[in-house]
Amino acid sequence: MEIHLHDCRLKIGETIREIREKKGYNQEQLADIMNVSRTTISKIENGKFNFSIDYLSKFSWFLDFNISILTNRK
């Protein structure tokens, strides 16, 4: 179970990183916009942070994507 959760966090984090980079933001810029630390962004992108749906909602709002794309990735 824990391995599965880590894999899911890692896949979501990788997708968020890809979207962030396509939008032209670095981690510091996105952290400032979202009012979180750069370290938090890094941990989420690397699958090392157990984040909530609230964080996903923030990412989808600030990076302008639909959360459903995260669950459709293989």
From TrEMBL:
Transmembrane segment boundaries: none
- Annotated HTH cro/C1-type domain ranges read 16-70
Top-level taxon = Bacteria
Which CDD domains does the record cross-reference, listed alphabetically?
HTH_XRE
Q: Which UniProt keywords apply?
A: DNA-binding
Q: Which PANTHER family match?
A: HTH-TYPE TRANSCRIPTIONAL REGULATOR XRE (PTHR46558:SF11), TRACRIPTIONAL REGULATORY PROTEIN-RELATED-RELATED (PTHR46558)
Q: What is this protein called?
A: Transcriptional regulator
Protein's organism: Flavobacterium hibernum
